[in-house]
Amino acid sequence: MKYQKNQVIAFLFFMCMSATSCYSQNETGSRLLKFEKEITLSNVKGRIDHIDINIKDQIAYIAALGNNTLEIVDLKSGKVTGSIKGLDEPQGVAYIVRHNEILIANGGTGECGFYNALTLKKTGSIKLADDADDVRYDGDADKIYVGYGSGGIAIFNAADHKQVGNITLSAHPESFQLDPKVNKLWVNLPGSGMVGVADLKQLKLIAKWSKLLPRANFPMAYDDTQHRIIVGYRLPAKLIVYDSGTGKEIFSASMVGDVDDLYWDKTNKQILISGGTGSVNIFKQTGNTSYQKIADVKTRNGARTSLYVPELKLFLIAARANGDQKAALLVYKINP
Questions:
Q1: What is the per-residue pLDDT across 146-180, written as a single tens digit (0 to 9) for each?
Q2: How far lies 232's CA from each of 5, 72, 140, in Å?
Q3: Which residue from 63, 79, 100, 222 could staple onto 49, CB 3.0 to 4.6 Å apart?
Q4: Beta bridge partners of residue 106, listed in sequence order
Q5: How far is it between the farthest Cα atoms of the chain?
Q6: Which pTM does this prediction carry?
Q7: What is the 3-state secondary structure (H, E, C) of 294-319?
Q8: For residue 212, with 0-12 CB atoms within 10 Å meaning exposed, 13-18 middle and 19 or more buried, which class applies?
């Protein structure tokens, strides 16, 4: 009986080691994205949305949508140092470096609130229609772009908190990118099954790149050197690279599921992709029109929102609370 028990223990140990080995074999390229630390967001519940950063002071701002707060995290100390409460489904966030302010876009009310980054006191507000979402800041022009409602991108002056323009769209905008040098803005419109191209002078759509499949295009990145738009789709999980001028498809490949953010790393010619199925994919450009997946690094289930910080060589991932696991900001170092 004792012999049989030992056999069972040995068999279970072997199976456990085999499973561990298989898991390790499935994870590739972990040296390229090295885990540094986990910063616990103890009081955060529910979904987490966009992230931005004050690079000089290494302060991250995390829109805790389900918690109705903005969490402020000091990356150097690894601690939460503040919180802006009483928000209504905060989605987009931008640190406005020229004015040392934070803009928070609220999905529930459509309010875009400005806050002093030191005191966290409110300094201004602009009311949009509901579902104020993703935000981009053009530092050279000192203008802020906010996607909102059932189809619009509002344009603000950062200095005086006034709305100065609007681009009408056919559906709610998800991620978008702009290039003032060519006066264009590209925007994901999953509700219309397309990528829209807007003229920044005319403030209107001038092109539509429509697709029946794949669908659910949420994240987008821009390669301003090679003039390419990089889009992540959820149904099915697909990465597609387009020529930014013509909309011609250059490359496509399967990728991590439930994607929410992706970035172009121009220094290393890599695409960084975070997915809610629990991993980060890295695609390396290997030729003029070819990219190869070189990493699939395990993170946490549901950890799909991220921020690439090239100046600090960091990749930040927001992980929502899940069971016994508390919400956290996962900090990774990028190693070329």
A1: 999 999 999 999 999 999 999 999 999 999 999 99
A2: 51, 28, 28
A3: 63
A4: 90
A5: 83
A6: 0.91
A7: EEEEECCCCCCEEEEECCCCEEEEEE
A8: exposed
Judging by beta carbons within 10 Å of its beta carbon (0-12, 13-18, 19+), is residue 71 exposed, middle or buried? buried
Residue 215's contacts (CB-CB under 8 Å, 6 or more residues apart) are 190, 193, 233, 234, 235
Per-residue pLDDT tens digits for 220-257: 999 999 999 999 999 999 999 999 999 999 999 999 99
Report the amino acid identity of residue 89: E
CA gap 213, 64 in Å, rounded: 31
User: What domains lie within the chain, and their CATH numbers?
Assistant: 32-41+214-336 (2.130.10.10), 87-210 (2.130.10.10)
User: For 8, how many CA atoms within 13 A lie in the half-sphere containing its CB?
Assistant: 5
Ordered strands of the 249-254 beta sheet: 215-223, 228-235, 238-243, 249-254
* Euclidean distance between CA atoms 139 and 57, whole angstroms: 18
Residue 164 and residue 153: Cα distance in Å, rounded? 11
CA 118, CA 278: separation in Å to the nearest integer? 34
Q: How does 117-147 read in b/e, with b if 16+ C-beta sit within 10 Å?
A: beeeeeeeebebebbbbbbbbeeeeebbbbb
- Report how many helices (DSSP H) and strands (DSSP E) the chain contains, helices first: 1, 28
Tokens standing for residue 335: 């190693």
